[in-house]
């Protein structure tokens, strides 16, 4: 018969414990992730009745749009060859109301169609002045757009030059903030429209963008695959753009920036298609942050997004022509701006070649004020804070047929930059915290099982030690001592232990 010692019994119990608790806990961990995945499948999908559908159609947190202008202080000196000087004026702040319009399910309920409608209301208390009264001296964008459209024709350029002289349409103009943003009738455009009726006579940086949309988007609901939540299928009926010179540059990838799939990973790259830039950009993880007690991952555009073709060969397709290719940090978007020499960048040429900053007096790029970022809760993909910052510039250079440009060197001149910001409101943050609490309980359930197993193991060890102690005490209580050191022999009964006889009372 095999006799087990107490250490062997303990080892056997430990092995059984591992089988009973640790292995099922590993399976429970996988099951916990599966449950979390199922929760996201049920709650974070773009279908009627889901937890996020109503807030996706009409986001509750307030969105603010701030406009900053670069006021030109030495236009005459600049045209004579002096370095341009600008002074930043702003912000002019507007409350941005956005909602999804004409929402309808398509493709047998697997996708959803919507229009992103935006409207703006001016907030005087958050602004530096009155946009109807404050004047800004800046580049005459309509004039530069017309000059660039006719630069390849000597006769057309000569005619436009005569028109500009007669109309006193200079290379720089002074307009109110309201006019620059929401539009004004430009005399040169009116003259051009006389020969080309399709030309719009009103110009404004935000003209026709108040109460309008960017066209129809079709999104994946995420019901089939949570990774597709909010992903764009088509924009204006197109699966890809036609502005650029490569398939990569024309690709429509990712979301529109309003929704991201749950269960985000730090190693993944987030793609966002933005009609304002006429392209898809991407963001990468930067750091962990916390907003109103909610954990979040901060994603930002890396320098490679707007890097030159030498630094990032993928960006070669964004060159308008092989000869029209700017350096790092700027993107010429004239193909989608009716030929106007518009250049996009981050504010103050943040992340751009230093030559663009050095060419303008009055610029000072700073990460804190000019970086674009998204703070996303990794469990749900919900935006808890965001700042979208972009700058509008005009490419100024010598144009044949226009004598007023002969003294100019190629300059990317800043006109205005915007800061579109949002932060989760208190009511939404409380709802998100409750959802995260539930998900944490589900995902940590395996740890609870392991913890209970450890407690049971400790209780068993304590009971085992106590049992051994009690056994030792019992043996000590029943032990006898012999009278003599030498045991006595009984020829019939064998060895016996002699006890001390009881004392004789009579003796």
Question: Could you state the oligomeric state of the chains shown?
Answer: single chain
DSSP helix count? 12
The helix fraction, in percent, is: 25-40%
How many strands, which pairing sense, and closed or not: the largest β-sheet? 13 strands, antiparallel
Question: Which structural class best describes the helix and strand composition?
Answer: alpha+beta
Number of strands: 19
Provide a quick synopsis of the model.
With 507 residues, the chain is α+β, with helices and mostly antiparallel strands. Helix content is 29%, strand content 27%. This is Scavenger receptor class B, member 2a.
Describe this structure in words.
It comes from Astatotilapia calliptera. Belongs to the CD36 family. With 507 residues, this protein is of the alpha+beta class. It has 2 domains: 1-43 and 434-465; 44-424, no CATH class. The protein is built from 12 helices and 19 strands. It has helices spanning 6-43, 53-57, 75-79, 141-150, 154-167, 177-182, 187-193, 247-250, 354-358, 367-370, 426-443, 445-477, and strands at 63-72, 86-106, 111-122, 135-139, 172-176, 184-185, 202-203, 212-220, 232-235, 270-274, 279-291, 294-300, 330-332, 342-345, 373-376, 383-396, 411-423, 488-490, 494-496. Strands 1, 2, 3, 8, 9, 10, 11, 12, 13, 14, 15, 16 and 17 form a 13-stranded antiparallel β-sheet that branches. Strands 4-5 form a two-stranded antiparallel sheet. β10 (270-274) and β11 form a beta hairpin. α5 (154-167) crosses α7. The protein is elongated and about 120 Å long. The two termini are 55 Å apart. Residues 1-33, 493-500 and 502-507 have low confidence and may be disordered.
């Amino acid at each position: 018969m095999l006799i087990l010692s107490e250490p062997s019994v303990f080892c056997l119990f430990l092995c059984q414990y591992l089988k009973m608790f640790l292995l099922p806990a590993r399976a429970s961990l996988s099951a916990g992730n599966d449950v979390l995945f199922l929760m996201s499948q049920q709650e974070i999908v773009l279908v009627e009745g889901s937890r996020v559908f109503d807030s996706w159609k009409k986001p509750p947190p307030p969105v603010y749009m701030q406009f900053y202008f670069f006021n030109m202080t030495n236009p005459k000196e600049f045209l004579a060859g002096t370095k341009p000087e600008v002074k930043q004026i702003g912000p002019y702040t507007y409350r941005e109301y956005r909602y999804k319009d004409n929402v309808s399910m398509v493709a047998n309920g697997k996708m959803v169609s919507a229009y992103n409608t935006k409207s703006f209301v001016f907030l005087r208390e958050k602004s530096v002045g009155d946009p109807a009264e404050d004047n800004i001296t800046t580049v005459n964008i309509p004039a530069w757009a017309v000059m660039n459209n006719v630069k390849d024709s000597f006769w057309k350029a000569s005619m436009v030059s005569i028109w500009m002289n007669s109309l006193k349409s200079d290379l720089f103009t002074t307009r109110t903030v309201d006019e620059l943003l929401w539009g004004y009738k430009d005399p040169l455009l009116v003259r051009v429209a006389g020969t080309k009726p399709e030309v719009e006579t009103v110009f404004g940086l935000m003209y026709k963008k108040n109460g309008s949309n960017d066209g129809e988007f079709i999104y994946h609901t995420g019901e089939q695959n949570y990774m597709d939540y909010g992903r764009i299928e088509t924009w204006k009926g197109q699966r890809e753009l036609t502005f650029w010179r490569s398939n990569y540059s024309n690709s429509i990838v990712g979301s529109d920036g309003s929704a991201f799939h749950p269960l985000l990973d730090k190693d993944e790259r987030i793609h966002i298609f933005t009609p304002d830039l006429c392209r898809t950009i991407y963001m990468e993880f930067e750091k962990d942050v916390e907003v109103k007690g909610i954990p979040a991952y901060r994603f930002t555009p890396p320098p490679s997004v707007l890097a030159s073709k030498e630094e990032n060969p993928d960006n070669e397709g964004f060159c308008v022509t092989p000869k029209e290719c700017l350096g790092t940090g700027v993107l010429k978007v004239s193909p989608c701006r009716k030929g106007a020499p518009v250049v996009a960048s981050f504010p103050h040429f943040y992340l751009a070649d230093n030559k663009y900053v050095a060419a303008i007096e009055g610029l000072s790029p700073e990460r804190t004020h000019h970086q674009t970022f998204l703070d996303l809760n990794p469990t749900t993909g919900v935006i808890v804070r965001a700042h979208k910052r972009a700058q509008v510039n005009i490419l100024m250079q010598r144009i044949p047929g226009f004598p007023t440009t002969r003294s100019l060197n190629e300059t990317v001149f800043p006109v205005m930059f915007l800061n579109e910001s949002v932060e989760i409101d208190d009511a939404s943050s409380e709802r998100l915290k409750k959802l995260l609490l539930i998900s944490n309980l589900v995902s940590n359930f395996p740890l609870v099982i392991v913890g209970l197993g450890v407690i049971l193991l400790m209780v068993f060890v304590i009971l085992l030690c106590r049992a051994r102690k009690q056994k030792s005490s019992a043996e000590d209580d029943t032990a006898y001592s012999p009278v003599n050191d030498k045991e006595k022999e009984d020829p019939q009964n064998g060895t016996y232990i002699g006890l001390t006889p009881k004392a004789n009372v009579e003796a």
